[in-house]
Amino acid sequence: MATNLKKLGSILTKQASLVRRLSSSPSLASDGANGKSINLYTAINQALQIALDSDPRSYVFGEDVGFGGVFRCTTGLADQFGKHRVFNTPLCEQGIVGFGIGLAAMGNRAIAEIQFADYIFPAFDQIVNEAAKFRYRSGNEFNCGGLTVRAPYGAVGHGGHYHSQSPEAFFCHVPGIKVVIPRSPKEAKGLLLASIRDPNPVVFFEPKWLYRLAVEEVPEGDYTLPLSQAEVIREGSDITLVGWGAQLAVMEQACIDAEKEGISCELIDLRTLIPWDKETVEASVRKTGRLLISHEAPVTGGFGAEISASIVERCFLRLEAPVARVCGLDTPFPLVFEPFYMPTKNKILDAIKDTVNF
């Protein structure tokens, strides 16, 4: 048993090293002109600072955000903007989001933090039955479009089943909200600012594994990146790969290894899951004839299923193989067996080969 645990620890160490290397990959990193090399949590902090500074109606609140939060994303903001604009809340996720809805309904920019995405479920009713329907049920007379709900999601190497989940698919089923997931520091800053300023409520999932591991050049000023616009971050001709968040780094390594075996992979970062960019994915699949989707969430009912169904409808006569999905397992998220649960580089590479050779 001790030997097996040592092997698992070695696998986790290699995965962390992989993320560090790939965070500076030219194809994963965007142009960082006039930027500074920072990690992802610092990029989030910069975005929040800009949001608070540029709009006096902006407020940041959640459990422990007053002293910087568990992941330090709000460090220094209470000192700079005051405790009336950056403040702690009770340990009550339903109350946090409910308060945010009311604040946004009065014309403010409410930026609510859920400490871990695993604990967003007590606020599920507020998000899907109140925030998502607020504009619709009032006939567009009222809205809470100024609400952004931030939540760290996904694997972290030691989180177990209460601190590692990827619940994005639950929210993608609900019209009226947007779901956004960045893959890198520059993407995180630009997409978060765009989410805060979007006229619709947004659930913004942050890949906690990358908070300190992902580092790239990020513009120091104010900028936004378009929502609902996917990005082709690697051109290819044999197969299309689609993912989001931390999984992009793993998929990139699989693409590199596949290239060594003569397989050309096109890699797409979806960035926004709802509403997602069907046109970019469709155009790529029409070119390659094959599609593979990978995400950390369990395979059954994961958002990869929606992408698969949509592309089959749009590209059925062009597909040369069944759509492949490499995802988390249909089990509670494990602790010491996390490396077996995760959609790893080797799992993706095997699926690439199987799909291309179908």
UniProtKB/TrEMBL annotation:
User: Which segments constitute the Transketolase-like pyrimidine-binding domain?
Assistant: 38-213
UniProt xrefs under SMART domains: Transket_pyr
One GO cellular component this record assigns the protein to is: mitochondrial matrix
Q: What Enzyme Commission number does this protein have?
A: 1.2.4.4
In terms of domain of life, where is this protein from? Eukaryota
Q: Where in the cell is it found?
A: Mitochondrion matrix
Q: Which CDD domains match?
A: TPP_PYR_E1-PDHc-beta_like
A Pfam family hit: Transket_pyr
Signal sequence, start to end: none
Q: Which keywords are on file for this protein?
A: Mitochondrion, Oxidoreductase, Transit peptide
Task: State any single GO MF term.
Answer: branched-chain 2-oxo acid dehydrogenase activity
Q: Which cofactor does it need?
A: thiamine diphosphate
The processes (GO biological process) annotated in the record are:
branched-chain amino acid catabolic process; response to nutrient
* Reactions catalysed according to its record: N(6)-[(R)-lipoyl]-L-lysyl-[protein] + 3-methyl-2-oxobutanoate + H(+) = N(6)-[(R)-S(8)-2-methylpropanoyldihydrolipoyl]-L-lysyl-[protein] + CO2
For the keyword Transit peptide, the answer is: yes
Q: Subunit comment for this entry?
A: Heterotetramer of alpha and beta chains.
Protein's name according to its UniProt entry: 3-methyl-2-oxobutanoate dehydrogenase (2-methylpropanoyl-transferring)
